[in-house]
Amino acid sequence: MRWGRVLAVTGVVACLQAGGLVAAIAAPPPAPPAAGGLPADGPPALYAAEPSLPSAAGWPGPADFPRTSGTGRLEGGAFLWTDFLYDDHGAVGASAGYPATDAGTPSFGTYTYPAGPADSNGADIFTAGVLFAGGDTYWRVDWTTLADPDIPIAEWTFDRDDNASTGGSEWPAGAGVESPGIDTALVVSSRVAQLIDVRSGAVIARLPVTVDRNAQSFVVAVPNTLLHPSGAWRIRLGAGLANATGTAFAPATGALPGETALYNVTFRSRDQEPIADNFWDDDAQAVALTEGDVSAFSAVVRWSQLAGHVTTPEAQPTGWSDRWYVSSADLGPGEDSGLDAVTGTAAQFLGPVQPYAIYVPTSYKAGRPAPVTFLLHSSNQNHNQYAATTPLLSAGACEDRGSICLSPLGRGPQGCYWDFAELDFWEVWHDASRYFDLDPDQTVVAGYSMGGIGANQLAMEHPDLFARDITMAGGVGEVPQDVNLRWVPVYLEGGLADELVPLPLESGQAGQLESLGYRYRWLVYPLADHVTLELEDGFSDAVAYMDGAVVVHDPGHITFNWDPQNTLGDAADPVETGPQGSLATTQDPQLGLGTTGAYWLRQLTARDDNAEAQIDAVSAERPDPQVATTTSTQVLVPGDPTPAVATSLTWRTGAAPAPAATLTLTLENVAAVTVLLSDAGFGPGSHGVLHVKSDGPATIHLGERTIEVAAGQVAIPFTG
C-alpha cells in the first residue's frame, strides 16, 4: 500500500505519505502470554522480557525503585525514590525553552543545556536512594543521562532534626535556592563529595564518589561518625551542571541573572504536580525554582525504619500517573533535538529508560482483569497529552468504563508509531501487563491526529488484537489494508475545516469501509478545525463506540493485506533515515516488529517484497452469521459540543449456515502461509477439502502437512 494523498508537509502528513502500513515477517511462534493478560498473537516485541538495569557500584543495598514517578518506598534498609523523567527544565528564565518541549508540549521551565555531552538532559535525576548499612549511610543519585560524568552535580540538604527553625536556609555551592532548617549539605560531583556545615559554610569532610557510568549513578558512603543518623531527617535533593572543579554549580544555560542553577529538584510527589497542561510534570518545580524556594519538596527519612529494614509497598495511585520501563533499544544518551520534522521518524528520547502515562480507574481491583484502552498521542505531543488536555475524554474512556488507559511516549513527538515508536507501544503494553491484570479481549486502540493514524496502522497490522479502532482526526483515506478491518469496527471523526488531516482522508476511509460492508461510524463537525476539535474535549460519542467492545476470535472469513517493504523514505537520502541510519519501518525482525498473521493465519510471506500481498481465507467449518448492513445518517445537535453529522454502517446478524468441511484460500503474491487448523474449526482427525486459487507458486502449511501449489486453482483433501 502507498498512501495516496499528499496534502502538506507536517509531521501528521509525513505519516500519511509513508509506505504501506503492514509488513509481514515469518516470525517464530510467540512466547506464552505473560501473567496479567496479553493476547496470544502479538509480535515478538510484545513478549520480550524486560532488560535489567545494571547494578550500581558502591551501593550495597536493594535497588527496586518505584515504577511510578513522584513516589518512594522503603526496602531492606533503604529509602528509594523515583523522579519524573525528562523534567529537567529549571526555572522560567531568559530562553524560549528546550527544543524537545516544542509548541505542542511546552515545559514550564525554560532552561536549556550547552552543546556537547550534556546531551540536552545532563542534570535529570532518574532515581535517588538513601541506605543505612553497617557504619555508613549511602547517598545515591541515578541520572537519566550520563554520557560524561563531569557534567552533573547533585546537592543533598539535611534538616537533621526536622525543625525548620534551626539551621540555615541557603543551599551551599551556588545552587541559588533556599529551604528552611538545613543543618548539613552533601554536594556530589564525579570528582568529589563535600559534606558542608550550612551555618558556617565550612567543609566538614571531602569524600570519594563511586561513579558507575554503566549504571549512570553516583554513590557516596558517609561514615556515621560524621552524620550521626538518628531520629527523623527532612531531606531534599537538586541537580544542575558542575563547574570546572566539580565543587560547585555552574550557571544554568538560559537562566536570568541571579536565578537558580538547579535544573531539577526531586522529592516532588505526583500530587504536587498538577495534571492540567503539565506535559512534563514540571509546573510546580518551575514555579518553585523561579521563586528560589524549594521548601515544598522534601522527604522524611526515619532512621529507625531503615535500621529495622522496614519494607513498604509501591504506591498504587488511581487516575493519571507516569510510569517507566526499560526498553530493549538503547539509541544513545539523552535527547536528540535534531528531529526530522519532514518524515517524522527520528526518535528523540534515546535512552533505554522510557516513560509512559497510565490511567488506573478507581474501580480497578487486582485479580479482576480490566479493559485496556490505548490513547496514542498526536504529532508534537507526548505521553501526557490526554492527561494534560482532555479530562472529559479521560473520564469517559478510562474512569467511567473501568478501563486502564495507556499512552506511550513513542520515543518522541513525531514518531508516527513506526520503528522505535512502534516498539515503544508493544513494550509499554508488556510492562503494564506485569503490574496490572489486563483483559486482552477488551482492548481498544485509539488516538488523535497522528495517534489516530497510528491506531489505524496497528489495527490493520494486527486486527485480531483489537476490539475497536478509534481514529479521532486521523483518517487515512482509501487504502488496501482497510480490508483487514472486517472484524474491527472503526470510528472516525474530524472537523470540516481540518487543515492537517483534511476531510477527504476521512471520507475516503469511510467510503472504503462502506463499499466493503464493514462497520464504522463517522462524525463530521462543520464548525471545527484540527486544533479546536481536541480543545473542545468533546469525545463522548467516541467513548460510546468503545463500550462493550470485544475482540473477535477465529472468525470464518479473513481478508488480510500487507506490504512487505513498508518503509518510509529513500535509502539514498540520509535525511529520511531513522536514528540508527535505517529507514523507518513497521517491519524489523531485529526489533520484534511485523505482523504475525491474523486470527488462524500465521507466518505469511510474499513472493515479491516490492508488491503488496493479500490472502482471503474462508473456513466453512466456522461459518459466520449472515449479515445485513444498514447505513444511516443523523444530525447531532449540539453534538460534542458543537453540531455534528454522523454516518454509521451497522450489522444485523442472522443465523449462520451449517458447517461444511471446506477451507478456501485465495492468494495474491503469497509465497507461504500457515493455517492453524484447530482454530479454523478442523479438529484432530477431521477431514476437509482445501480449495486454493493462487496467482503463483505457494507453500501452505496445514498442521503437520506441507502442500505446494502452483499458479491456478486446485482442490486437495486433507486431515486435521
Summary of the model, kept short:
It is built from 11 helices and 37 strands.
Verbal overview:
The protein has 720 residues and is an alpha+beta fold. Helix content is 13%, strand content 31%. It contains 11 helices and 37 strands. A 10-stranded mixed β-sheet has the order 16-17-19-18-20-21-22-23-31-30, with helices on both faces. Strands 5, 8, 9, 10, 13, 14 and 15 form a 7-stranded antiparallel β-sheet that branches.
- Our Rg estimate from Cα atoms comes to 28 Å
Distance between the first and last residues' Cα: 35 Å
Strand order within the widest beta sheet: 16-17-19-18-20-21-22-23-31-30
CATH fold group of the domain at 11-50 and 327-552 = Rossmann fold
Strand proportion? 25-35%
CATH architecture of the domain at 11-50 and 327-552: 3-Layer(aba) Sandwich
Global mean pLDDT: 91
Total of helices: 11
Counted beta strands: 37
Provide the CATH superfamily of the domain at 11-50 and 327-552: Alpha/Beta hydrolase fold, catalytic domain
Task: For this entry, give a set of tags.
720 residues, alpha+beta, Rossmann fold, Immunoglobulin-like, 10-stranded mixed sheet, 7-stranded antiparallel sheet, 11 helices, disordered N terminus
